[in-house]
Amino acid sequence: MRSLTAFLLCLLLAAPLCAQKNKRDPLTEAEKDQIAEAGVSPVDRLNLYVKFLNQHADTIQGLIKRAHSSARVHRMDDELQDFTALMDELSSNLDEYADRKADLRKSMKPMNDAIQHWQSLLTGMAREPGFEVSLKDAIDSINDLAAQAKQVTADQDAYFKLHPDEKDQDRAEPK
Fold first, then answer.
1. What is d(CA 55, CA 69) in angstroms, rounded to the nearest whole number?
2. Residue ranges of the domains in the chain?
3. Buried b / exposed e across 73-85, counting CB within 10 Å, b at 16+?
4. CA distances (Å), 65 to each of 27, 119, 159, in order?
5. Minimal CB count within 10 Å: which of 17, 55, 72, 131?
6. What is the band of 19 on the pLDDT scale with cuts at 50, 70, 90?
7. What is the dihedral of CA 102, 107, 112, 118, to 10 degrees?
8. In 23-104, which residue ranges form alpha helices assigned H by DSSP?
9. Is the pLDDT assigned to residue 85 strictly greater than 50?
């Protein structure tokens, strides 16, 4: 009886480890290194996330054109999940830097242009069994990111109009 209990306990403890192993990471090690090298530079970090998201969007665009197969559906599902995870990470970084009153205006125009491209890509995709949930999540995420980026852009323009002496800063300094 003790052996059975010990075995079941080991299985319960091992289950989260298996789940962690299967969790996808949307960034490669090289991309993680680039993010780390950008450090706390808001403009550099945001631009890197946009670059990586553009690469994933290109991959998704390429998969749309491929012949329909189960391998394509699985790959599309994975790419959409990675795309959503990266958009969420970009959103988190955008929140953090906007709260600090970092000057993000250099990143906002290219980001807003890219967001429009990503929205048209995702909303133009045909719904197919196998990745419809991931596509819906990605569309929800891009719509949230678009609204957030629009708000941050407006807030940034207004803030730096009132505080021109804080232009090009990484964070607001206490006065």
1. 22
2. 42-163
3. eebbbbbbbbbbb
4. 24, 18, 44
5. 17
6. very low
7. -120
8. 29-38, 42-65, 70-99
9. yes
